[in-house]
Amino acid sequence: MRRAVSVRLPAALATAAVGIAVVVAMPTPQASAAVGSATGYATQNGGTTGGAGGQTVRATTGTAIHAALCGRASSSTPITIEVTGTINHGNTTKVSGSSCNTAAGVIELKQISNVTIIGVGSGAVFDQLGIHIRDSSNIIIQNVTIRNVKKSGSPTSNGGDAIGMESTVRNVWVDHVTLEASGGESEGYDGLFDMKDNTQYVTLSYSILRNSGRGGLVGSSESDLSNGFITYHHNLYENIDSRTPLLRGGTAHIYNNHYVSLHESGINSRAGAKAKVENNYFRDSKDVLGTFYTNERGFWQVSGNILDNVTWSGTGSENYPAGPNLTSTTTVSIPYPYSLDGASCVPDIVRQTVGANTGLRVSNGSCSPQTPPPTTPPPTTPPPTTPPPSTPPPTTPPPSGTNLSLGASADGSSKASGTSYGNVRDGNISSYWSPAGSTGSISIKWGSATRVSRVIIREPSGTQGSIGSWQLVNHDTGAVLASGSGAGSISFSATSLSKITFKINSSSGTPRVGEFETYAS
């Protein structure tokens, strides 16, 4: 572990004093949605729409946010929570209900889906209070400030993370937020934007991360490699010691960010992680890209970045800087469309667009700020014959527990040129297995009997729909556990087995399996 550091800081932020009155969220007359649409990896795996299509409520306390979650018909009923004012420990208590699992002293988004939290009015500030996302999917957080969240000292919240995600989280879009601390670990703070324990398909866009020892991580240790598919674009990292971000395994796309005053290290790709780093602007910083504090190397693909007064340390044990001459060590395929601003204009476009309460402006690749319209403007008069559709949950909701395939082996009936059986258990949806023909089988196997009750078959982006009819077979006994057509989630009676086989009996063209995930529940 790296040593604790003291971040170089401007004058500490004043803490606002607020009342402790609890205001119950009340419905607004019309439904609304987040402004703009999700970008990056949050658009994959079924997309990220948050609470679009559901009820909109207004909250001025943390308790009211929890009450809005607990007042839904179910834990997946879409809801948009408009937040205004200061949310703190004094007004954030636990609320109980069948559609929520909340706790005092933290905004708890646990075991839920289809939620938008958006700052409105004169602004929303979460003061010394973090947002914790756990076992959840399809979440949008937009236009809020989160500041001075501590893991030690008083008060503490969310393990010291401004926004923390863990334990099977899917599809989160965090946009136009301001995340701030007032020091490093020795002052009681941890990360500003952390992801661990099987968190995937996340985008952080048009946001400010500043005045902290740690920007954020993907993976809590060298063995926590189930995270990935994260996009960071058009963000300002300022006055940060390290972790902008720290990547342990997985894939990240990092573009059009402005980095200023990174004191120790920046993008830290390690433990096999792959990062596509393009058209960023680094200024007055040290060791902005590389593998640091470990001998478990990571990889990067670089292009179009500008280094302005960047210094580099020498290569040595547990220190592998990518500079001073940035060179790619891998290639990363990006499955979604995006528009790049030129690196030279990144400081200016980022200055004009990032953070909460700045008008939610974005860039379309022209280096000129644009104001997006609401994703779904409410109709003045609903059509009499067609009620407004409700937004469904993500195509494949997150399972409970760990993907057991990540630590298993794989084999199959055949493999097409350039594909591998192991590609279905590597946590990377862009790599895949295909049979030599239009049918074939792929298996996950363990060294001893393993309890499985759910399988998710994921197809790479752009190839969805190629898998036709299939059977899921207990290879130990030959018993058919389930059958059907098309990729997706497959549930069946819990079975202990050492090998499970997905048998493709028909397809349109050559089928591709990007991931064969297995779960105990």
Overall shape: it is globular
CATH topology annotation of the largest domain: Pectate Lyase C-like
**The CATH architecture of the largest domain:** 3 Solenoid
How many whole angstroms does the radius of gyration measure?
A: 23 Å
Structural class: mainly beta
The CATH class of the largest domain, by name, is: Mainly Beta
Count the E strands: 35
In CATH, what is the homologous superfamily of the largest domain? Single-stranded right-handed beta-helix, Pectin lyase-like
Overall tally of domains: 2
Helix % is under 10%
C-alpha termini separation: 34 Å
Low-confidence stretches: 1-6, 9-31, 376-397
Largest sheet: 18 strands, mixed
Mean pLDDT metric = 88
Number of helices: 2
Biased composition (Low complexity): 405-420
Organism: Micromonospora jinlongensis
Keywords: Carbohydrate metabolism, Lyase, Polysaccharide degradation, Secreted, Signal
Region (Disordered): 360-426
3D architecture notes:
This protein has helices at 62-70, 346-353; strands spanning 26-27, 55-59, 79-87, 107-110, 113-127, 131-134, 137-142, 145-147, 163-166, 169-175, 178-183, 193-196, 199-205, 208-214, 217-218, 228-233, 236-242, 246-248, 251-255, 258-262, 267-270, 274-278, 281-286, 289-292, 299-303, 306-311, 319-321, 362-363, 369-370, 409-412, 440-458, 469-474, 480-485, 488-504, 515-519. The longest helix is centred in the N-terminal third of the chain and has 9 residues, at 62-70. The protein folds into two domains: 40-363, Single-stranded right-handed beta-helix, Pectin lyase-like (Pectate Lyase C-like), CATH 2.160.20.10; 409-519, Galactose-binding domain-like (Jelly Rolls, Sandwich). Residues 1-6, 9-31 and 376-397 have low confidence and may be disordered. 3% of the residues lie in helices and 39% in strands. It has an 18-stranded mixed sheet that branches. Strands 30, 31, 32, 33, 34 and 35 form a six-stranded antiparallel sheet that branches. It has 521 residues and is mainly beta.
